[in-house]
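cron nightly-structures :: item 1 of 1
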Amino acid sequence: MVRRQRPHTEESSPLTLPPGIRHADPALIVLPPAVWAKWLPDLLRPLSLGQQVLVADQIRQLASAGKLQVLGDRDSRGIYREAVITAPGMPSDDMVTVLVAGKVPRRTEANQPNQENQLNQKTQNTRHTAAKPAGSMAQRLHDRWRQDGFSLGYWADDASAPGIDAKRLGFCELTDLRYLAKTLEPGKCQSVPGKCQSVPREWWLEPVAWENVAGGNIAGEKRDSPSGGGASPRPSRMIELAALVEHTYVDSLDCPELSGVRSAASTLAGYIDAPSFRRDGWFWVRHRGSQRPIGMLVLACHGPAAEIVYVGLLPEFRGRGIGRGLLGESEAVAAGWGCERMLVALDRRNFPAAALYEGHEFRQILVQRQYFWSDQVAEIARSRGPVDRSRAGVGGRPKTESLHRPSPNLREQ
């Protein structure tokens, strides 16, 4: 996997722009909030109401954490045409998430705010004004991502009311992701891992130990990203943890097309870099009959709601009722955090997992269409053909509720 280095370079602009890479393409530039914030209502307008709430909340969280990057596409006069709001992963994560993208509202330059006038005028005067962007917006965006070390892009939309044109930016439709939720009942189960009455005695949870890496990330390398330096959390047994994710993802029904496309280390990096990350939500699954962990459980917290981000078991330990126990353990941990609701997302084709969750009072609240960009995914999509949505009851119009959601995750239910 390519390890990204993001050197700090100067931009020829009167504004102080976030650090980034200076590319040969003069049309794409990293924009500060003072420029793109006023475009946000127009960018969100094509989305469904539920998707607008979700994306706006993601943008707010990521912007406050310094983990947001907005790329503006300009014409030869320095006037903005399009904007792409993304959430780049940490340096050991090879995936970039697109939150929203679209045409910038057309206004005369005289009607634009002074700060944007300055930016447009300065860039127009300090570069070759006759330069014309080469290639399509999709091609130039992909080239930029590749230079930044990204090999996978992700974009989601409301499946009941699609409002984005992902294909125009070179994304392929892969599947639908169903979001299920359950209201937690305080006091129903003790909020201490391993103490829930539904847990079989032959297995238990062991919290993952963590260490802080000063100026580094989970891979131990130097951290150089827009969010700055400082100590970053890293599992103390990272290699073993990544290997366990690889083995528990075998024969997964959740986005199986991504097997081998995104590494386990990159997936874990994405979990850690998300605003919803909690150290006390990571567990090894131990079994009396095995000296090594047999599975892994990762939980996250979005304010009043907890999420099952990843739950996986080795193939030989599936079908023993451990999954039901892990669900009870997850609810116990969430109750201990003071959460009122439990969330989980799964592939629409994962019918066994859906039966398990729905049997435990989880109900569908949202269906998101999943789009990905990578050379491997594009080849898979071409060979597979259009997504089949013939199964009744899947991909229909769900209830719309506020739901917090970071980058997509690989799961084995």
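cron nightly-structures :: done
The first strand starts at residue 28 and ends at 30.
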